[in-house]
Write a structure and sequence with these properties.
nine-stranded antiparallel beta sheet, seven-stranded antiparallel beta sheet, 31% helix, 24% strand
Length: 671
């Protein structure tokens, strides 16, 4: 019998792509490329007692695989691929690596950047590996001009010798042309917790394990072919969250909690609150909600209006009218925008730590350039929510909110006056005159969403033309899977938040104009959102989520900088439902349903699982993996949530639930 011919790598062909496959094992801290021999089912490797088998089952458009190994020593494997003969490569681990994570525009040390630049910067490396459950879908992809390829893996594998009887698997991307998965993960080169917080690498090793997955290759429309891979992975792994209360019960509980827990009568403001579990579970205010948008203000006023319509007996300490009145009183004639906070005008008996100017918000400590300047995010949010609320109230009760409309149009007139010829609105604006001081970022896209209503209220085509130019400008960022520069506290990181504005604007433009181009934009926006929206259930590291009924499926990661799930993305669930009906594609309805189910499931953690709060209280943070587990119990042990009550998070939840309820009552008329 002739001896088998051994190779360190093999080449496979799939849908016109050539992929060089190799199998590596960690031995004494060093990666060893295992010698491979072909078998009837795939490949076999034998190396110093380690035996690995890779079985391949080729379908018409993909290859399903199973990888297993036994070893005398605890180890892990990497299934690595190189793409051959392709150009314009773009690495993609959803919600973790989007190209190089905008390395050229971000500050050193902020979060993982896949780059050879800045070799002394701990955040920069030519290869990054994460736990597979750190990604919204356990898949590593590589996009190119010809389409997209990728490989997925089961996020967990049974392992009898592990304390939890399972190990976590991994996903990785490497320069220039490498992508793959790991049987047994390792955070490489470091464990990224949040922003500038990196810690020592962690790993899961085992003597025997197996996992399965799929090798994908879709030729066609460049980077957007990645969405076909995401759809396939989702179809295999989706497990929808379970909840028990009704949407009406949840909405009422959120509203009542604002009235009975969140509001501080001492300072006459809604607040963010926190406690210490289990030592002292009384929620105490730590920041007054005085910002006009993004993390408060108008982001509360709109869902309050919806809740007040649904529950006529609801009595909020400050209702939507009062909130909008306070916001609108801060117009700055010199700049043409509203001052970004209302702290000095309306916060009585404020503690000294809250004594700030009318323009500087809590974010000004993160990004010095925002100090004494206006932010697109906050002002555009105000314009959007003023007009959105005025529109629905006009449809319901024929209420004419001319004061709100006039104020929103004043803001938008400034934005349109300063809008660049290519459609960009800017990220930061001067408070001293009408001037853009930073053009780079996606936050201004919220102006585009507001401008659609400005056109309908005023009848002036210039608003429609401005919105159209803006969507043409912001669309390539969405299409290229790298929207960046929306939340001020994450600076220029790739994120999910700005795309929410794009989704809302594209939906309205399609619904009002019937132009199919905007439906295509809406679909691109939705599919970008799904890169951040979990498509499977993870196994959180630590209490209170560990071993609880909590389910990550449907929750969305905020950014590559803040690797946790937050509630903001649920505000576009209604737009995803609209897309499902317009395209007759149940996939989008499923994604919308997951988002709502995730929210309902998460709300039911309070107070029994979280150990604090009440039903209707909501934190902004749940941690599906090992990212952002920085909160601590009283004894110093890590927690997978934040002992907080974040007003904006509860406001986003109210918005999504109220819109869903009203839609099913045929009472939500947004266009």
């Amino acid at each position: 019998m002739p001896r088998p011919r051994y190779h360190l790598d093999m080449t496979i062909e799939l849908n016109g792509f050539a992929l060089e496959l190799s199998l590596l094992a960690i031995q004494h801290g060093t990666w060893i490329a295992l010698p491979l021999s072909k078998s009837d089912q795939g490949f076999i490797a034998d190396y110093k007692g380690l035996r690995a088998q890779l079985s391949l089952d080729k379908k018409t458009d993909r290859i399903d695989y199973k990888l297993n190994f036994t070893s005398p020593n605890r180890t892990r494997l990497r299934l690595r691929f190189r793409i051959l003969n392709q150009s314009n490569l773009f690495h993609l681990i959803p919600a973790n690596i989007h190209g190089d994570n905008n390395a050229a525009h971000v500050r050193p040390g902020e979060f993982p950047c896949l780059t050879n630049a800045r070799p002394s910067d701990k955040s920069c490396a030519p290869l990054w590996e994460f736990r597979a459950d750190r990604a919204s879908h356990p898949v590593s992809m590589l996009c190119c001009d010809s389409g997209a390829v990728g490989v997925s893996i089961d996020p967990y594998s049974a392992c009898d010798e592990a304390d939890e009887k399972f190990i976590r698997n991994g996903v990785f991307s490497g320069l220039p042309d490498v992508f793959g998965v790991s049987l047994g993960y390792g955070n490489d080169p470091l464990t990224f917790l949040e922003k500038t917080n990196f810690t020592a690498a962690t790993t899961d090793l085992c003597r025997s394990a197996s996992a399965s997955g799929t090798i994908h290759a879709f030729p066609g429309n460049g980077r957007r072919e990645a969405h076909r891979i995401i759809r396939d992975v989702y179809s295999k792994l989706r497990e929808a969250p379970v909840f028990h209360k009704t949407h009406d019960q949840a909405l009422r509980a959120l509203a009542d909690s604002f009235a009975t827990v969140n509001y501080s009568r001492e300072i006459e403001q809604y607040t963010n609150r926190e406690c210490e579990v289990p030592a002292d579970t009384t929620l105490k205010p730590w920041r007054a909600i005085v910002e006009i948008g993004w993390t408060g203000g108008s982001e509360l006023a709109y869902p309050f209006a919806l809740a007040e319509h649904l529950f006529p007996d609801l009595k909020l300490p400050k209702n939507s009218n009062r909130l909008f009145e306070e916001i609108c009183s801060g117009f700055n004639e010199a700049s043409g925008f509203i001052n970004d906070t209302a702290i000095n005008r309306f916060t009585k008996n404020r503690p000294e730590k809250w004594n700030a100017s009318d323009i500087n918000g809590w974010w000004s400590g993160f990004i010095p350039t925002t100090r004494d300047n206006h932010c697109a995010y906050t002002n555009a949010h105000v314009a959007w929510y003023l007009l959105r609320t005025a529109w629905v109230e006009k449809k319901w009760a024929k209420v004419d909110r001319q004061d709100w409309i006039r104020m929103a149009l004043r803001i938008l007139d400034t934005a349109v006056e300063l809008q660049r010829d290519d459609g960009a609105f800017g990220y930061l604006f001067s408070a001293r005159d009408k001037k853009v001081i930073d053009w780079e970022g996606f936050a201004g896209c919220w102006f585009a969403a507001a401008l659609v209503y400005a056109w309908k209220f005023s009848g002036e085509k210039r608003y429609l033309e401005s919105a159209s130019r803006a969507l043409e400008y912001y669309h390539p960022f969405v299409r290229d899977l790298s929207c960046w520069g929306t939340p001020m506290d994450t600076y220029k990181s790739v994120d999910s938040e700005g795309n929410l504005a794009f989704i809302r604007a594209a939906r309205l433009m399609h619904e009002f104009t019937g132009n199919e181009r905007y439906l295509a934009m809406l679909q691109d926006g939705a599919e970008y959102e799904y890169l951040w929206r979990y498509g499977f259930r993870t196994r959180p590291d630590c209490p209170p989520l560990k071993n609880s009924a909590w389910n990550s499926c449907g929750g969305s990661i905020t950014s590559v900088s803040n690797p946790h799930i937050h509630p903001m993305s649920v505000v576009v669930n209604d737009d995803l439902e609209y897309l499902a009906k317009a395209t007759q594609d149940e996939y989008h309805q499923s994604r919308a349903d997951d988002g709502t189910a995730w929210l309902m499931n998460t709300m039911e953690l309070y107070p029994e699982v979280t150990g604090y709060g009440q039903y209707g209280v909501l934190s902004e943070r749940t941690c599906p993996s090992d990212g952002l587990t920085v909160e601590r119990y009283s004894d110093g042990s890590p927690a997978s949530t934040w002992w907080s009550y974040n007003a904006w998070a509860a406001g986003s939840a109210m918005e999504a639930l109220a819109e869903r309820i009203l839609r099913r009552k045929n009472e939500l008329v947004v266009a």
